[in-house]
Each structure stands twice: as structure tokens, then as C-alpha cells.
Amino acid sequence: MKPDTWKSALLSVLIAALFIGVWHLATLPKAATAQSAANDEYAVLLGKTSAKQTGFPPPLEIGKAIVKYLGDPFYDHGPNDKGIAIQLGHSLGRVGIGFLLAALVAIPLGFTIGMSPLIYRALDPFIQVLKPISPLAWMPLALYTIKDSNISGIFVIFICSLWPMLINTAFGVAGVRRDWLNVARTLEVRPLRRAFTVILPAAAPTIVTGARISMGIAWLVIVAAEMLVGGTGIGYFVWNEWNNLALPNVIFAILMIGLVGMALDHLFAMLQKWVTYAE
Amino acid sequence: MSAFKDPFDYRNRLGAGSCTCGKHQSQAEHDAVDELAIGADEDTLSQRVIESAVMRAIFPDDNKRRDFLRAVGKSTALAAISSVFPFGALEAMAADKLPLEKSNLKIGFIPITCSSPIVMAEPLGFYRAQGLSVEVVKTASWALIRDKVINKEYDASHMLAPMPIAMSLGVGSSPLAVNVATIQNTNGQAITLALKHKDKRDPKMWKGFKFAVPFDYSMHNFLLRYYVAEYGLDPDKDIQIRVVPPPEMVANLRAGNIDGFLGPDPFNQRAVYDEVGFIHILSKDIWDGHPCCSFAAPAEFVKQNPNTFAALYRAVLTASKMARDPKNRPIIAEVLSPPNYLNQPKTVLEQVLTGRFADGLGQVQNVPTRADFDPFPWYSMAVWILTQMKRWGYVKGDVQYKDIAEKVYLLTDARRHMAEVGIAAPKENYAKFKVLGKEFDPMKPDAYLESFAIKRS
Ligand SMILES: [Zn+2]
Ligand SMILES: [Zn+2]
Predict the structure, then answer these.
(1) Interface of A with B (CB under 8 A)
(2) B358 pairs with which residues across the strands?
């Protein structure tokens, strides 16, 4: 590793340590308030004698939650209480299916739009109207028409993944250099072959960028969607712990959401690098 | 196999706090999981589950339990415990089993104490005793319960008592005939206010307050409207009422988004426990014996699966019977506390169910009837609900009070099945009752409606 990398890594660790240190100090329990012995029962009923968590949880509590959930990630205690790995699996499954369906629609459609200025102009107003609609606003409509909460969740992922991929594909295809296309035309390459051998490789970096944006949005949306619809998934986990006002568990879940989101983004960054070399 | 250790054998450890294998939140849950996996001699097993739960509730300390059994012997202990607990009910019901049309069912619930009978019937094995394999699915909001029932994702569900009426009338959703099999719970709600309003105990001082209720078609909404209107406030003009799913009420109260709520327990008690609110009035003190939630199923399901529905009836009513007995309340608190069910601190549930609770104002109150689980679906309850729906403009025009009540509430079936599980049911179908001291005569709904000064119609 280059010395610079070392330095930045060291700095990252220092920042993290400082952050946790300040957090720890800020959430240190205040000096025990004197309980009036006269009202012992009241204190017990308020949970004051047990280790009840009040206020923002200290880092140690989060640590305990991490150990607890990562120590047994696959437990299954019935339909409403499953291990963190199972919940993440459900979320990733929904995102995966919705995202793939979106890609199946967005990339061919984007190709068509990108290659034909006429279709581009005809579809543009629809895309402009539909694109900014919050994905979650589709949820009630989906529940009403699809009549299945699980498929509705997948539909919401589909619809939010669609636009960035569609627009980027169209943009990438339309931007393929004229001279390459002219070369291809003089060589009498057939349109379909032209699409695969010339346009696709040239537009790939832009398409993957669109996919990367889509995946980022999809991962954000799935958490919110599962909080709405519940049942399974990391969003349901957050909701269930929020109901219990169990902040350490909620923070643990937020951490996991962040880590998985980062891993997904990293995956697409690698794909981006790979397709860019094609040029 | 450790789950099925005989709880009356002093040599066995029951694992106080968590379960015998250490992987589950409670023994009841451990047993529920293992039992499904093994599926051996079901009747004996479910009885063991209950016996274990009872023994653990009476002797939280494992050593004390063993000392007790060593001292008095197993049969004496069993006799003593049986006197407080309906062990016999399970075997009695296993009797005339007709072939079930459908045995794998999904039932939705909202994580509130109202749902106790439906939910506890699962870990305690009451569904399995009827040959049913039921998944009780926690659901995020009442709107979602309604949608999932309409979409047939749930076969039957926990519903607010007014919901089946609204759904059957097609008010607030596309019409779907839904039946109320039993009332899930009576009383058990409260008006909770933010701590900063400690000195505003007179509702006349509530002008401009923002309140939360769980759903438009809820007893909570109707009771809150009734309550403030009796104090001269117009619920549509003088206060704001917004719909917030019960689990989110405490978080909203803490954040200051609302001044109070008429909400279901355990969230009133949870607001006290988290020191963000106090209990202003129990719903019992507005209308003692009011219905809150119901156990409901689409009429189509009832018609197509008569034997399955009868089995469901018996399972849920067994749970109601158990839940009504104050002696069982601490056990129920324990069974419902884990994340798979209500996901709440046990002490909060216990305070709600036993009625000995901290009120948020520094006092310990003792109200054993704070929550009850009387299952009888009086037609008069449905008529009252309809008068309030009309009063606040949720339904317009002439209302066929009796027709609707008798179509939606399955009072006759409830009476028959209550007899099967040994619950005494009233002989009448309609009863008068008092709300804030004012008498309601179910035979004169229109005159009742006329008598209110504040109303929309
Ligand atoms: Zn276990
Ligand atoms: Zn209720």
C-alpha cells in the first residue's frame, strides 16, 4: 500500500475512535437519582430498578446488540421474529427481483429510445411525469391492484429502479459516437448486430452508472417499504424494534443497512471499472 | 426434547427467564417452535406447554419450584395448579372433531394487548389442539390489516370492532362482507397525555390539541369524539384527530407531534414507562365494558369453511376464557412479551393486564378491570357504533341499525361455541348500557342520536 493510503486509513480509525469516545462520554449515566423509599413500587413499575435504557443508548449497548444479533444470525422464532441474516436475505431477495425486472424493461426500452429521436421525444413527457413520483406513493395503488403485499414491495423496487437505468441507457446509446456508427454502417453490419457489437460496449459504462444509481435507490426504498408492509426484511426488523423503542437494536439495524448498501455499491463500482476497460 | 420435560418433575430445570435450550426468548416460544417440529402426541404436548408456563409464572425461581415439588409431591401440585387453570378444556374440546376444510391458516394481528386471545392461542397450543396450524402475523397498521383481508392474504384477523361494519358497508374501502366472530377484548384503552399537560386535566382546556387514534373506524376514535363532545368541544373543529398506527403513538408523543392519544394498551402504559406521558382516563371510565377489538373473518371464508371456522372459534374462545381469569394474567404477560408477539417489556404488559399500574403522575393505581376479554358480540354494541358513525358523518342517510348489526355480528354462533368451551353467554341479544353516565337504548338509536348537541348529521 502507498503511504497515503496508510495515512488516510489511520485517520479514518482515529475519526471513528473520536466519534465513539465522544458518544460514550455524552451518554454516560448521570449520577443515580435518589429514590424516595416511600414509593418503591412506583419505581419498580417504571422499571427504574432494572437496567432500563433511558435516553440515547451508549456505544456499549450497540456493541451488545451487535454481538447478540451477529452471534446468532439465522435463528427463527416464528413468523414475526427471525435472525438478522434471514431478514437481510428477504430484503436482498426483493431488491434483486425488482431490480432485475427493472433492468429487463429499462435496458431494451432505453436502447429503443436512445436510437430513435422520434420515440425519445414521444416518451419524454411520460418519463418526466412518472420519474419524480416517490416510489412509496405507488404502494397503496400497488396493494389495491396487485392484491399481494409481497409482490407490491417488489413492484415498488421495480418502479424506483426503472428510471435511472432507462434514462442512462437512452442517454448512453444516443451518445455513442457518430463516427463509430458510420464505420459500422459502411461495413454493412446489420442493425441488431450493430447494437450488440458497437453500441452496447460503447454505452455500457453509462448503463452501469444508471444501474448503480438504481441499486442505491432500491436499497433505500426497500427499508421504507418493508416498514410499511411489514412481515419480513430488514425494514420490518427496524419497525418491530422501533415499536419496542429499542434504540440499540434500531441503530444496529441502521449499521447493517449501511454496510450492505456499501457492499452493493462496491459491487457496481467494480462492474463499472470492468466495462470501462472495453473502450 | 428438553422442551417437554415434565414441569412437575423437580429434577427438571425450566430455565427461568429464557428457555431450556437458551436459543429462544421464552420457554413458551421455544415450546411453540419445537412442538411444531416434532408434532408428536399433540394433546399431551400442548398441555405440557401450558403447565410449564403456569409453573414458571408461579415459581419464577427454578430452585423454589423444585423445593415446592419435592415437598408436596407432583400430584398435589398438579391438583393445586389445576384448580386455577383450565387444563381440562383442551381435552374436552378435542372431542367431536369434524373434518377441517382448511387447516393451514394465516391470521393477522396488531401488536397490542387487545390481540391477546388470538395471539396467545398460538404459543399455548390452542389452535393445534383444534387440528389447526395457524401463523399469527404481526401487521404494521389497521389499513394494512384491512387490505390484507380484502386481498385474502389473511384468512381471519384481529380487527377493531367497528372495522367489519365499515368494510361490510363499503365505507373507507371497497365493500367486503366481514363477520365478527367474537369480541376480542373489552375496556383496556386509555387517554394518554404528554407530561407537559399535567395541569390540563379538564378537557375544556384541550382546544387546539392534536390527538392520535389508531384508525378512523375504531372505538378509540368514537370514544375520544364522544368524550370531548361531552365537555363541549367539537372534535372536528376544536381539536385535531389524526390516525397513527398504535405502535407509533409513543414515539410521536415523545417527539411532540401529538399532545395525546386515545390508544390501545400497552402503549398507554408504555408512555408512562418511558416517562413521556401520563394516563388521563381509562376507557373503562368512559364506558365500562365497551368493546374494542374483534376477531373477524370475511363472510365468504365463514361460509366456505364452516368446520375450520368452528375450530377457530373454539381455539380463540378457549383463549378468551383463560384471559378473563385474573389469575392467568401474569402468565399471559409472559407469553406475549417476546419479539415474535408484542415485543414489549414484561412489566408493562403485566401492569396493563393485572390493572396494578403506575399512572405517570406518581401514583400506583389498582384497577383490576382495566382490561378484560369478554367475547360476547352484543348486537347493541354494533348499533352504538353505527350511531356514532352516523353522528360524525362516516355514514349518511337512513341506517338500518338492526339489520346491519345482525348481519355482521355473529352473536348466535358465538353463543353456541361459548357453550362448547364452557363460557356462560347472556340470553339477550341487545342490552342497554351507559356511556359517561348517559343511557343508550339500542331500540331507539335515532332518538339517541338526536339527543346530542354536537354532531355532523
Ligand atoms: Zn429454546
Ligand atoms: Zn382493541
Answers:
(1) 39, 41-42, 44-47, 50, 52, 54, 72, 75-81, 143-144, 147-149, 227-231, 239-245
(2) B364
- pLDDT tens per residue, range B160-178: 999 999 999 999 888 999 9
Alpha helices in B337-378 (DSSP H): 346-354
Sheet holding B178-183, edge to edge: B133-138, B104-109, B156-160, B293-298, B178-183
Cβ–Cβ of B25/A77 closer than 8 Å? yes
Distance from C-alpha of A247 to C-alpha of B254, rounded to nearest angstrom: 14
Residue B213 near residue B224, CB atoms below 8 Å? yes
> Ligand 1 centre and the CA of B3: distance in Å?
7
Out of B256, B271, B289, a domain closes at B289
Distance CA A26, CA A36 (A): 27
* Chain B residues with CB-CB distance to A41 below 8 A: 364
Q: Are B166 and B135 in contact (CB under 8 A)?
A: no
For residues B442 and B305, state if they share a domain. Answer: yes
Which H or E run contains B78? helix B74-82
- DSSP, collapsed to helix, strand or coil, labels residue B439 as strand
B22 with B67, same domain: the answer is: yes
Give residue A85's pLDDT.
92
Banded model confidence at residue A8, pLDDT cuts 50, 70, 90? confident
Cβ distance of B33 and A77 shorter than 8 Å: yes
- Write the residue in B248, B339, B347 that is nearest to A240 by C-beta: B339
Q: Give the global pTM.
A: 0.81
Please tell me whether residues B278 and B302 are part of one structural domain.
Answer: no
* Rounded (5°) CA angle A21-A25-A26: 115
Domain housing B60: 2-84
Closest-approach residue (CA) in chain A for B349? A45
Ligand nearest to the CA of A76: 1
Q: Is B435 helix (H, G, I), strand (E, B) or coil?
A: strand
8-state DSSP, A196: I
CB distance B103 to B308 below 8 Å: yes
Whether residues B339 and A45 touch (CB distance < 8 A) is answered with: no
pLDDT at B1: 38
ipTM of this complex prediction, to 2 decimal places: 0.78
pLDDT at B48: 61
CB B229, CB B454: distance < 8 Å: yes
Per-run averaged pLDDT (10 residues), chain B, 457 residues: 50 52 60 45 52 62 68 65 54 62 93 93 88 91 91 94 95 91 94 95 94 95 96 94 87 91 94 93 95 96 93 93 90 88 91 94 93 95 96 92 94 92 91 94 94 89
Q: At CB < 8 Å, which residues of chain B contact A?
A: 23-25, 29, 32-33, 111, 122, 135-140, 144, 147-148, 150-153, 247-248, 250-251, 270, 272-275, 338-341, 343-345, 347, 351, 356-358, 362-364
Residues of chain A with CATH 1.10.3720.10: 84-275
B382 touches B340 (CB < 8 A): no
Q: Report the chain B residue with the minimal C-alpha distance to residue A249.
A: B339
| Total domains, chain B | 3
Please report the pLDDT score of residue A137 as a whole number.
Answer: 85
CATH number for the domain whose boundaries are A84-275: 1.10.3720.10
